[in-house]
């Protein structure tokens, strides 16, 4: 929303953002919490992780792909559609803030039922939001932004859901190593997808942005249904319980160490905390 404070072509906004980042680091630097003592994690490669949880790994990759496209191409799409500077900023802000609001409730729901069903529901709702916004962009700006919020509120939970699903299939001593591998997989998706989507937009047209996002979610939903046919759900007693973010937590590493000490997975809010801090 700071795009509306000054001309985005000037250096003022870049300086302002730099100052805000510096200010945000002050409470982190003043914290009295000590760094957690974590042993060297067991290395878990992408192939091994995929063998244990195919849907989780694919879901993390798709989460990186769709979020990478939104963050890197969203403003370009909105500008190409003739949006004003305020509307461009609102487009990005609505999607991101909606994702922040829905992370925790959806994470809690997934702890209480088959996570794959939640992934499917989230993907289908994201498809509805993206296609609905695409269809109503020129009809009603209010409806457009409402559907963008629906899209962001569902799509941006995929990383947390997918990584939690992986943790359901990984022993406690390998969770930290698995987390680092998932970050690499997520980054690969965030790097490759925007290049491909931007190329398609350049050839077919700027208006293909939202349908392409919808297509990626639809493919993930289909794959999740396929995995449900191939493998039974993780029994409730074997799922790692929900771990709330403890007060004073200064890093996702502390969450992981705290969970490992209790032989519990970092699910729900811990995955969410890691994503939001990232």
**Which spans of ≥5 residues are poorly predicted at pLDDT below 50?**
241-278
Structure annotation, total helices: 11
Succession of helices and strands: HHHHHHHHHHH
Structural class: mainly alpha
List the domain count as a whole number.
Answer: 1
- CATH homologous superfamily title: MFS general substrate transporter like domains
The count of β-strands is 0
Largest sheet: none
Mean pLDDT: 83
Can you tell me the CATH class? Mainly Alpha
CATH architecture: Up-down Bundle
Ends distance: 20 Å
The percentage helix is: over 70%
CATH topology: Growth Hormone, Chain: A
Q: Into which percentage range does the β-strand content fall?
A: under 5%
What shape does the CA trace take? globular
How is the secondary structure organized here?
Blueprint: H1 12-29, H2 46-52, H3 54-80, H4 85-111, H5 115-136, H6 141-155, H7 158-167, H8 175-204, H9 209-230, H10 252-261, H11 269-277
Brief overview, please?
By secondary structure, the protein is mostly helical. Helix content is 71%, strand content 0%. The protein has 11 helices and no strands.
Descriptors:
single chain, 278 residues, mainly alpha, Growth Hormone, Chain: A, 11 helices, 0% strand
Task: Report on the architecture of this protein.
The chain is mostly helical and 278 residues long. Helix content is 71%, strand content 0%. It is globular and about 50 Å long. Residues 241-278 have low confidence and may be disordered.
């Amino acid at each position: 929303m700071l795009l509306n404070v000054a001309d985005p072509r000037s250096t003022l906004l870049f300086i302002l953002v730099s100052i805000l980042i510096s200010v945000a680091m002050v409470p982190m630097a003043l914290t009295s919490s000590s760094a957690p003592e974590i042993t060297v994690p067991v290395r878990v490669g992408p192939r091994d992780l995929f063998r244990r949880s195919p849907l989780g790994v694919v879901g993390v990759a798709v989460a990186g792909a769709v979020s990478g496209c939104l963050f890197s191409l969203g403003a370009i799409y909105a500008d190409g559609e003739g949006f004003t500077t305020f509307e461009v900023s609102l487009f990005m802000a609505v999607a991101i803030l909606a994702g922040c609001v829905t992370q925790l409730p959806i994470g809690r729901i997934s702890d209480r039922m088959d996570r794959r069903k939640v992934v499917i529901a989230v993907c289908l709702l994201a498809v509805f939001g993206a296609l609905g916004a695409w269809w109503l962009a020129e009809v009603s700006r209010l409806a457009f932004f409402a559907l963008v919020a629906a899209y962001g509120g569902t799509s941006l939970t995929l990383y947390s859901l997918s990584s939690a699903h992986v943790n359901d299939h990984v022993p406690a001593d390998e969770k930290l190593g698995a987390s680092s591998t998932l970050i690499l997989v997520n980054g690969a998706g965030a790097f490759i997808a925007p290049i491909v989507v931007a190329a398609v937009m350049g050839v077919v047209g700027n208006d293909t942005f939202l349908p392409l996002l919808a297509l990626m979610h639809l493919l993930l939903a289909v794959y999740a249904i396929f995995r449900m046919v191939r493998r039974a759900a993780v029994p409730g007693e074997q799922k790692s319980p929900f771990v709330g973010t403890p007060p004073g937590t200064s890093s996702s590493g502390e969450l992981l160490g705290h969970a490992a000490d209790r032989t519990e997975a970092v699910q729900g809010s811990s995955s969410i905390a890691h994503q939001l801090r990232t």
